[in-house]
């Protein structure tokens, strides 16, 4: 029988994969010339398209939702769309490091919400780990912060987007107690995509006429940061609380900044690289000493892919 520690190692490996995956998001957005709302719309619609072939085993659950679940799914999807719109928009106005470092506030917002809504328990080591990671995040983005011009506007957009995704994650933690990751993600992504479709129609953005390279970027965004990032993080809510999962965003500035240095030519100092090590150390402390541990699963229960039946917690 699979031991709990072995399951835990698999969970943490997937958690790390999710961090790497979401770190590519800012790079792909920078590569695209399309409006950010169009990028997000096709990113999400293509994600649903990728998930569609795996929908059959989940068809009964997906259609047996009560009014409250539909309402919360709608709210979660709109918050996700708002997050994408604001955060992706910030990438056009400020640096990758500056925009992603503001996302470091997400765990704090979610921790506060979890204590208030779910009576979550925290300990001193968790707070120390979060503090260390936040300190490292501030160092990474400090050199890029400005107090005027478009950079300030971009930082404000990133902050508002962070608040939106915190609400999205808290709603996800509540909904995932009664829904599989597939059903939750499919409906939330679809709601967010439709929200963008209405927004783009109202704003008069073109729905077509994009180059093949743009469609390739849309597909990359759907597969890498959405399926292997957001989907995976939502799946991990079965084994970790929302605060722990959200700690993954503290690793995003590290890898996003490295990728921006390698692929976009953005500067990266020795101090920022050292701060990356500090961030990862803080995230490790938070997870290592967190009270919420991965739950054991049966030995024959596979890690849930988009179309597979999920293992149940016991």
TrEMBL record:
Transmembrane region(s): 12-31, 37-58, 70-90, 96-118, 125-144, 156-175, 182-203, 215-233, 245-264, 270-287
Q: How does it sit in the membrane?
A: Multi-pass membrane protein
Q: Is the Transferase keyword given for this protein?
A: no
Localization per Swiss-Prot or TrEMBL: Cell membrane
User: Where mainly found?
Assistant: membrane
Where in the numbering of this chain does the EamA domain appear?
11-140, 153-287
Q: Give the superkingdom in one word.
A: Bacteria
**Keyword line:** Cell membrane, Membrane, Transmembrane, Transmembrane helix
- Known Pfam families for this protein? EamA
* Keyword match Ubl conjugation: no
Give any Gene Ontology cellular component: plasma membrane
For this chain, the family text in UniProt reads: Belongs to the EamA transporter family.
Please report the name of this protein according to its UniProt entry: EamA/RhaT family transporter
Q: Which organism is it from?
A: Paenibacillus silvae
